Amino acid sequence: MRVIITGAASGIGRAVAELLAAEAGAHQLLLTDRDGESLTVVAAAIGSAAGTCVADLSSADCGEVIVAAALAHMGGIDAVVSNAGIIAGAPLVEQTAELFDKIYAINTRATWLLAKAAYPHLAANRGAFVATASMSATQPTPGLGFYSSSKAALLMLVRQLSLEWGQEGIRCNTVSPGPTYTPMTEAGYADADRRAAREAMIPLRKLGMADDVANAIRFLIGPQSSHITGIDILVDGGMSNNLMPATGGGTGQQASK
Ligand SMILES: NC(=O)c1ccc[n+]([C@@H]2O[C@H](COP(=O)([O-])OP(=O)(O)OC[C@H]3O[C@@H](n4cnc5c(N)ncnc54)[C@H](O)[C@@H]3O)[C@@H](O)[C@H]2O)c1
Fold first, then answer.
1. Is residue 225 in contact with ligand 1, taking CB distance under 6 Å?
2. What is the DSSP letter of 96?
3. Does residue 220 contact residue 121 with C-beta atoms inside 8 Å?
4. pTM of the model as a whole
5. Which of 6, 10, 139, when mutated, tests ligand 1's pocket best, judged by the most ligand atoms within 8 Å of its CB?
6. 158 three-state secondary structure
7. Is the distance from CB of 148 to CB of 141 less than 8 angstroms?
8. Which of 11, 87, 122, 152 could form a disulfide with 182, with the two C-beta atoms 3.0–4.6 Å apart?
9. Closest ligand 1 atom, CA of 135?
């Protein structure tokens, strides 16, 4: 497969690149990120299959720039993993229009721009498109109102693409990680008590790892999901089912007669 991966210099994007590079079979990868230094390190670890493109996803021309680099390196595109995203937070009443535009540009608009630029190439190959959303897309998240709403918009954007592009055989899906240990979050989990409290909220009793999410992405870009489009795979260790246990559930209540 010939695969574009955004946010490939770190965390989940890097794990997808390493997973594909470790597989038997000749995948070709176009790794892209705004962090050129880290991207070079990842590409060097992967070897000759990896081309790189340093691009800022907040730019309006990012889709065209990345697709041009992909075509130059691989000659075509079979799958796109639109994974990069940023997190920033404060209560909504304290936020600014500048931050709104920045978060939505990277977390939402860039996926559309990349999909649009890749469209004729995905159509030519009956390809696959996967974006990394978040558990926050469906769960309002304290302090992360722009993040959660930008990911909610991303979920619908990709469902919309699945509808519009299905007749050309292009499958479009999302993955939604729950709390996942990556460079984005590791500072927050350096506090052992905080990490333990978070893990206690997760039915599987552990944070997700970048590989857990990468495996779901791998499934969605590959032939094993050949009749799946327009879905979201939650990779959250069951955390989104933990609302009622957090309230105490049925404990202390009388059974109906
Ligand atoms: N880690 C988690 O707990 C978690 C949970 C839910 C969703 N996610 C989502 O998973 C995705 C990957 O996150 P991660 O945890 O691997 O984070 P990460 O910070 O480790 O990696 C994100 C990568 O995206 C790149 N990036 C950020 N802004 C960019 C821009 N403007 N242009 C180009 N590249 C840019 C960064 O340089 C970085 O390499 C994100 O979309 C994030 O929102 C993560």
1. no
2. -
3. no
4. 0.97
5. 10
6. helix
7. yes
8. 11
9. 6
Domains plus CATH for the chain?
A: 2-235 (3.40.50.720)
Q: How many CB atoms lie within 10 A of CB 212?
A: 21
Backbone angles phi, psi at 227, to 5 degrees: -115, 25
Would you name the residues annotated as active-site residues?
147
DSSP H/E element including 5: strand 2-6
List per-residue pLDDT tens for the chain, 257 residues long.
Answer: 999 999 999 999 999 999 999 997 789 999 999 999 999 999 999 987 899 999 999 999 999 999 999 999 999 999 999 999 999 888 999 999 999 999 999 999 999 999 999 999 999 999 999 999 999 999 999 999 999 999 999 999 999 999 999 999 999 999 999 999 999 999 999 999 999 999 999 999 999 999 999 999 999 999 999 999 999 999 999 999 988 877 777 666 677 77
Distance CA 3, CA 220 (A): 12
| Residue 125 CB-density burial (10 A; 0-12 exposed, 13-18 middle, 19+ buried) | middle
What tokens appear for 220 in the block? 């969605």
Ligand 1 pocket, residue 180 CB under 6 Å = yes
With a 6 Å cutoff on the Cβ, whether 57 touches ligand 1 is: yes
Residue with tokens 């240990």: 181
Length of the chain: 257
Amino acid at 100: F
What residues have CB less than 8 Å from 183, skipping those under 6 apart?
A: 10, 11
| Rounded (5°) CA angle 210-159-26 | 50
Number of helices followed by number of strands (H, E) in the chain: 9, 9
Q: Which amino acid is at 121?
A: H
